[in-house]
Amino acid sequence: MRLAHLALPVRDQERSRRFYATYFGFGAGPAQRYDDGVLIIRNADGFDLALAASPDPGPLPSFLHFGFRVDSPARVRELLARVSADGVQVVEEVEEPGLVSFKCVDPDGYVVEVYWE
Fold first, then answer.
1. Does the predicted model carry a pTM greater than 0.85?
2. C-alpha distances in angstroms, 89 versus 75, 82, 84?
3. Domains of the chain
4. pLDDT (tens digit, 9 = 90+) per residue, 3-44?
């Protein structure tokens, strides 16, 4: 068994699609729109993000976040440099012997972590 999708309410589906395609590889294959308006985007591992249009995703608990594990500290640093250069808000950086990570904020305020450990 493995986790296969995450559903997020978002203000602007296309803006969110571009964000996740640009930084997190959610451009594998064409996006799929369902009759209820949900937009599904997929990464190369077959993980789906279901983006549902919502005028207000609502307040989020401070601990709520989701993360992407990468294969090297260099990959974390490379993506951190890229999101920073593009003006994406970075809210945390960790550089320790067994953990290199950062957390950034997506267009709807969801905290996304990229980490190696």
1. yes
2. 18, 11, 7
3. 1-57 (3.10.180.10), 59-117 (3.10.180.10)
4. 899 999 999 999 999 999 999 999 988 899 999 999 999 999
